Amino acid sequence: MTNPLLTESYDYHLPDGLIATHPIHPREHARLLVYNRADRSITHTRFDALLTFLPENCSILFNDTKVIKARLYGHKSSGGAIELLINRPLDAYAINVYIKGRVKEGTLLNFEGNLSARVIALSDDGSRTVNFFQGESLIRFEELLPILDTIGHIPLPPYLGREDDSDDEREYQSVFAAHEGAVAAPTASLHFSDALFESVCASHPHAFVTLHVGSGTFKPVEADVITDHPMHSEYFEIRDSAQMLIQSSSPLLCIGTTSTRTVEYHVRTQQTQGEANLFLHPGNPPLRVNHLLTNFHLPKSTLLMLVASFVGLEETHRIYQEAIDEKYRFFSYGDAMLIL
Prior knowledge:
6-stranded antiparallel beta barrel, 9-stranded mixed beta sheet, 8 helices, 18 strands, QueA-like, alpha+beta
């Protein structure tokens, strides 16, 4: 029997051809694997049949974060090309980023639109802290956002192996995205068309949480024992309507791992705003969330371990192997799984 605390237990082989490099059109035509924990049954269907499988009495929580154009291409004052990926603001002016290209403290980076960034700190984890300037003026993060919308690029996950295009501006965003700040999409949300979203909301009590997904969501677990992994933190907010559903006796379905982490962090801490860094795995299972809608995740990732916190390690492998055998599409633009 594999050990659920060992990182190697979460490895699996995925044929390259099953990585979804582009979105499917229309988005609700993605496939849906429905797993019922009561009898361990697996049903194969399509996402637009979701309402058929949702428990009638469950409440639903969505993550309404909005992906920003967080990738910038520019050059150092010395002329060397660089690529910068915004991760998260540390305060109004200090922004945590990742930079491809050698930099040191004080390095000035130049971009289009008279935008520049100065490196003010180097971190052991490989990230950098920068201040952004418009011309000579230091600017706040909220002032940076409209500039990014003009000159930035959609921060597609690295495993897609391609540059973003105009299609991604629409497809790598949920139809209910509202609050800017994520640098990765809450991918389970990408399957909802406007019509399907409205139908689900009309038939079930629902509310929104916000968790600004950071690039740490793609970081593999490198520690041999999963509990030694330093879990990344992400900004979250839970408003009153979501709190009411969480505190109710209704079974709760979370749309995505991000809303799941947000709810479970709140249940453990009672915080409604701040930084969440909860790591769900078989040794730390959910306390409040009953059902999960999610995509298929990378080997040895914290997201795969979160799935195992719902169904166990062995069943996770069985489900994933069946999805591979049935040629489901994997990762951000891939197909979905509903855990009942």
